C-alpha cells in the first residue's frame, strides 16, 4: 500500500494540479435557550468525513477546499436536536453561531452508586480487554473466507485552473464520450486507478500465517505498468487492520487502536446513554477522541456488544486526528463491521465489511487532492478447518491467469452488489486517458523512478542508478544494462550490462540467466558471469539486493580496487513460510589493482600484484515471518510490508583450496538481525545488528571492511558516515546501527516549530572488530593515485578489540516534506585526517 501511495504522490506532483480556493469555517455552538456554549459538540460537513469537535468554549474551526455554495455543516450533541446550516460567500467570512435545541426525547435515568466517580465507558473497555482471547480473530486455530475488494483512486477539485493544465486537458478531452463522474459532494473527479479483486483469505495459528489467494484481478491505471505486482497489493489483506492489537502499522507508521490495552493513556471516551442495534446485535455506543492531538490516534465511535456477546467489537467508524503529523495525508477514515460466526457454542468475530478512505492533499495549498477508496466485502466464513501447513508458505498467491481472461459474467457473479453504469465506465475512461501522449510520458517517468528501468515492451533498460559513476580508477564510468520482464517469459529472466571507464579504458561486462522452477515457493536456478571492477568492502550480503548501495560502491576514492572475473551457479527457494535459502558455487579470478602480496612482505620493497584464483561455496538462510514480499514484473521479489517481528540472516562462505586451480581457501560466518519496533507514543526504532568471524587464514580481499561513506554531504543510513571506505579491516566484527524516530513527539511540543511538521531522530552506530595475527602477515598498500606517494595513514587498520568505533548523531526530518538533515559526531579513533563531525542531508518522499 505504501508503494501504491508513492505512485499516487508522484502522479499528483507531475500533474501540478491547482486546487480550489481554501476556506476556514469558523463559529461556535451554543444552547438555544440559555446561550451557554456547548463544548465538544460534533460539527462536520454534510456528505464528507471532514469535521471537528467544538472546544471548551464551544468554538470550532474547519478547513474546507470545496465549493462553498454547496456546503452544508451539521452540528450535533447528545441531548440536542441536530442543526444544519447552509453556507454561502456571505456567511463564510464571519463567525457562524449554531443554536442547538434540547431534544424532546427523554434519556434513561443514570444512577451513580460509587462515591468515587468513574467514566461509565471504562468498565466496558476493561471487559473488551478481558475478552480479547475470545473475540480476536487471531486467537482462532484457523479461519478462511471469500473476499471482494474494490479500489478506486481519483483526483478531485476539478476547477478551471486545474482544467487548463495540458495533461489534464488531454485527459478531459479523452472523457468526452463518457458521462461525467462526480464524488459524494457532486463535484467532478478524474479517475486515475481502479481495480477489483476476487480472492480467498486464509489464516492459521502457531505460528501465525496469513495467505491471500488472488483468483482474479482487474486493473486499470494511469501509473506505472506492473500488473503482476499491483495485483498482489490490492487484495483485502493489505487493509485488514486488526484493532485488537494495541497498534497497527500503516504508511510505515504505528497507529494507536481505540481499544488498546493502554486505552486510558491515549483516548477519552463518552458512553452514549442508550444501546443501539447493529445487524441485530445489542451494542454499547462509545465515542472516543485522542487525549493528545499530536498522537497517531483517531476520533470516532465504536460499537461494543453487550455481555451476551462477550463485549466484542461489532463496528468502528474512525477518522484520524487532524493533529497527526503525517506528510501529504489530509484524512484517513476507517469503517469496519464484524460478523459473528458460531463455533463450539461461542461466537468468533470476523470482518464482514471494511471501508477505507484516504485523502492525499497536504502537498501544497493550491494542489489537488487525491482520494483513495477501498471497499472490502467478505463472506463464506469457515472456522477451525485448517489446510495443510504447506499451503500457508506464501503470504500472497496469484493464480496464473489472475489478471487475464476475466469477463463481465465472472465479476457479476462474485461482486456483492452490481456496479453502477458510472462505476463500470471508469475502467474504460482510464483506458482512454492512458492512450494520450502526455499521460504516457508521465506514467513512463514514474515507472522509471519506481522500477529503476525504462520499459520498452519485453525489454527494460537500466538500472538507472548505474548509468554513471565517478571513481579514482575509471574516472567517468558509463554503463548500459538490460533485463527482460514477464512479457518476455513467466519463467525465464535474462539480464546483462556493459560499462566503460574513461581513465582505465577498460570494458566491463556481464550477464545472468534465471529460471523460475516454482513461483509459489520462489524456487530459482540461476547462472551468471561478469568481468568488472570491484572494491574490497564488508558484508555485501547484507545489501546485495539494494541497487543504490551497490551503485554507491562505484563512487569515490577506491583504496583497494580489483578486477574480478566471476562465474556463478546458484539455487534459491523458500523452505517454508518466511524461511529462504540460497546456495551458490562461484569460480573467481581476482586481479588486485593495489600493491598486494599474499604471503609476507614485498620482495626488495618492490610492489607485487598477486592474482587470486578461487572456488567458493556460499549458503545463506533468511527467516522473517513478518516480512511481506511481492513479485515484480522483472521476476524479483520486493519487500512491501513488515510488522514488528525481527528478520534473521546467517550465511557461510567456504573457499575450496586446490579445486579447479584455486590458490587460496578460507571460511567465513556472518549473522544478522534487523527489526522495526513501534514504541507507542515514543516513536519507532529501526536497528541492524550484525557480526561475523573468519576463523581461518584468508586473503586480504576476503577480509571484512566496514561500509563507510565516501560521498560527501549525502547521508547513507546503512553506512558509517564519518568512516572512509577501506579505513578499517578485520576478521572478527560486530556492529549495531540504530535510528530512532520520535515522530514529532519532541518538536510537536514547541508551538512555532509544530506548524512546520519537523520530526527529530536519534542515531547511534557502533562497530567492534579485530584482526588476528594469522591474517595480518600480508603485504598490502592502498592504490596510489597519479602524483601520490605512499602514505601509511591511508592503509586499512584493525580496530582495537577493547575500543569500538562509535558514531552518534541527531537530526531533523520532514523539512519541506522531503528533506532530512543529520549532524553526526565521531567519538573514537580520532586522527589528523579523520572526519570527526559532519552534516549530511538526504531526500525522499515519506509519510
From TrEMBL:
Protein's UniProt keywords contain Signal: yes
The protein's UniProt keywords, in alphabetical order, are: Signal
Query: Which InterPro entries does the entry link to?
Result: CarboxyPept-like_regulatory, DUF5686
What span is annotated as the signal peptide, if there is one? 1-19
Keyword presence, Nucleotide-binding? no
The domain of life is Bacteria
Q: What is this protein called?
A: DUF5686 and carboxypeptidase regulatory-like domain-containing protein
Q: Native species of this protein?
A: Flammeovirga kamogawensis
Amino acid at each position: 500500500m505504501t508503494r501504491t501511495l508513492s505512485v499516487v504522490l508522484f502522479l499528483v506532483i507531475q500533474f501540478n494540479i491547482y486546487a480550489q480556493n481554501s476556506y476556514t469555517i469558523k463559529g461556535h455552538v451554543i444552547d438555544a435557550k440559555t446561550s451557554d456554549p456547548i463544548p465538544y459538540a460534533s460539527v462536520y460537513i454534510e456528505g464528507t468525513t471532514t469535521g471537528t469537535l467544538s472546544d471548551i468554549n464551544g468554538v470550532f474551526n474547519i478547513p474546507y477546499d470545496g465549493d462553498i455554495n454547496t456546503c452544508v455543516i451539521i452540528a450535533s450533541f447528545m441531548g440536542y436536536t441536530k442543526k444544519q446550516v447552509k453556507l454561502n460567500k456571505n456567511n463564510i467570512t464571519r463567525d457562524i453561531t449554531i443554536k442547538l435545541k434540547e431534544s424532546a426525547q427523554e434519556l434513561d435515568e443514570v444512577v451513580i452508586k460509587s462515591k468515587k466517580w468513574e467514566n461509565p465507558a471504562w468498565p466496558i473497555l476493561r471487559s473488551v480487554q478481558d475478552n480479547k482471547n475470545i473475540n480476536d480473530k487471531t486467537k482462532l486455530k484457523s479461519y478462511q473466507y471469500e473476499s471482494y475488494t474494490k479500489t478506486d483512486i481519483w483526483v478531485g477539485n476539478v476547477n478551471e485552473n486545474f482544467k487548463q493544465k495540458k495533461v489534464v486537458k488531454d485527459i478531459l478531452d479523452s472523457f468526452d464520450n463518457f458521462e461525467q463522474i462526480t464524488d459524494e459532494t457532486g463535484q467532478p473527479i478524474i479517475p486515475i486507478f481502479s481495480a477489483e479483486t476476487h480472492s480467498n483469505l486464509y489464516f492459521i495459528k502457531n505460528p501465525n500465517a496469513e495467505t491471500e489467494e488472488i483468483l482474479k484481478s482487474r486493473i486499470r491505471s494511469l501509473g506505472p505498468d506492473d500488473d503482476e505486482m499491483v495485483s498482489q497489493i490490492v487484495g483485502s489483506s493489505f487493509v485488514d487492520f486488526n484493532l485488537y492489537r494495541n497498534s497497527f502499522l500503516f504508511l510505515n507508521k504505528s497507529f494507536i487502536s481505540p481499544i488498546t490495552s493502554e486505552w486510558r493513556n491515549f483516548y477519552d471516551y463518552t458512553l452514549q446513554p442508550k444501546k443501539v442495534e447493529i445487524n441485530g446485535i445489542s451494542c454499547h455506543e462509545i465515542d472516543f477522541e485522542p487525549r493528545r492531538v499530536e498522537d497517531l490516534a483517531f476520533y470516532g465511535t465504536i460499537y461494543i456488544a453487550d455481555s451476551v456477546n462477550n463485549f466484542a467489537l461489532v463496528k468502528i467508524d474512525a477518522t484520524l486526528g487532524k493533529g497527526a503529523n503525517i506528510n501529504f495525508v489530509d484524512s484517513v477514515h476507517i469503517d469496519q463491521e464484524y460478523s459473528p460466526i458460531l463455533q463450539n457454542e461461542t461466537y468468533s468475530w470476523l470482518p464482514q465489511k471494511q471501508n477505507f478512505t484516504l485523502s492525499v492533499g497536504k502537498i501544497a495549498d493550491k494542489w489537488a487532492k487525491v482520494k483513495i477508496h477501498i471497499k472490502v466485502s467478505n463472506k463464506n466464513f469457515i472456522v477451525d478447518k485448517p489446510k495443510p501447513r504447506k499451503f500457508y508458505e506464501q503470504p500472497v498467491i496469484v493464480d496464473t491467469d489472475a489478471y487475464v481472461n476475466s469477463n463481465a459474467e465472472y465479476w457479476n457473479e462474485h461482486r456483492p452488489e452490481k456496479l453502477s453504469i458510472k462505476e463500470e465506465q471508469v475502467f474504460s475512461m482510464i483506458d482512454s486517458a492512458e492512450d494520450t501522449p502526455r499521460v504516457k510520458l508521465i506514467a513512463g517517468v514514474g515507472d522509471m523512478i519506481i522500477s529503476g528501468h525504462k520499459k520498452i515492451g519485453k525489454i527494460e533498460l537500466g538500472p538507472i542508478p548505474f548509468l554513471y559513476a565517478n571513481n579514482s580508477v575509471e574516472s567517468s564510468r558509463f554503463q548500459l544494462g538490460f533485463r527482460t520482464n514477464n512479457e518476455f517469459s513467466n519463467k525465464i529472466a535474462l539480464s546483462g550490462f556493459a560499462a566503460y571507464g574513461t581513465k582505465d579504458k577498460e570494458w566491463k561486462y556481464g550477464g545472468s540467466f534465471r529460471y523460475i522452477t516454482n513461483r509459489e515457493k520462489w524456487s530459482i536456478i540461476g547462472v551468471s558471469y561478469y568481468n568488472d571492477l570491484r572494491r574490497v568492502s564488508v558484508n555485501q550480503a547484507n545489501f546485495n539486493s539494494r541497487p543504490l548501495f551497490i551503485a554507491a560502491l562505484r563512487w569515490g576514492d577506491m583504496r583497494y580496487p580489483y578486477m574480478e572475473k566471476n562465474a556463478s551457479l546458484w539455487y534459491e527457494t523458500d523452505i517454508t513460510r518466511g524461511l529462504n535459502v540460497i546456495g551458490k558455487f562461484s569460480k573467481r579470478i581476482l586481479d588486485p589493482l593495489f600493491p598486494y602480496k599474499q604471503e609476507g612482505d614485498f620482495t626488495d620493497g618492490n610492489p607485487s600484484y598477486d592474482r587470486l584464483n578461487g572456488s567458493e561455496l556460499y549458503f545463506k538462510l533468511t527467516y522473517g515471518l513478518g516480512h511481506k514480499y511481492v513479485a515484480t514484473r522483472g521476476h524479483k521479489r520486493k519487500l512491501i510490508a513488515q510488522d514488528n517481528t525481527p528478520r534473521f540472516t546467517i550465511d557461510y562462505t567456504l573457499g575450496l583450496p586446490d579445486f579447479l586451480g584455486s590458490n587460496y581457501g578460507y571460511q567465513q560466518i556472518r549473522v544478522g538481525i534487523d527489526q522495526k519496533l513501534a514504541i507507542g507514543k515514543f516513536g519507532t526504532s529501526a536497528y541492524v545488528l550484525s557480526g561475523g568471524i573468519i576463523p581461518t587464514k584468508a586473503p586480504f580481499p576476503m577480509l571484512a571492511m566496514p561500509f563507510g561513506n565516501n560521498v560527501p554531504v549525502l547521508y547513507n543510513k546503512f553506512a558509517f558516515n564519518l568512516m572512509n571506505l577501506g579505513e578499517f579491516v578485520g576478521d572478527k566484527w560486530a556492529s549495531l546501527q540504530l535510528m530512532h524516530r520520535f515522530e514529532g513527539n519532541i518538536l510537536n511540543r514547541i508551538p512555532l516549530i509544530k506548524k512546520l511538521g519537523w520530526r527529530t531522530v536519534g542515531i547511534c552506530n557502533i562497530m567492534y572488530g579485530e584482526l588476528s595475527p594469522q591474517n595480518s602477515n600480508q603485504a598490502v598498500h592502498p592504490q596510489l593515485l597519479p602524483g601520490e606517494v605512499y602514505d601509511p595513514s591511508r592503509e586499512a587498520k584493525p580496530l582495537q578489540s577493547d575500543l569500538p568505533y562509535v558514531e552518534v548523531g541527531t537530526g531533523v526530518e520532514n523539512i519541506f516534506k522531503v528533506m532530512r538533515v543529520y549532524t553526526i559526531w565521531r567519538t573514537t579513533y580520532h586522527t589528523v585526517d579523520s572526519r570527526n563531525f559532519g552534516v549530511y542531508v538526504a531526500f525522499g518522499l515519506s509519510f
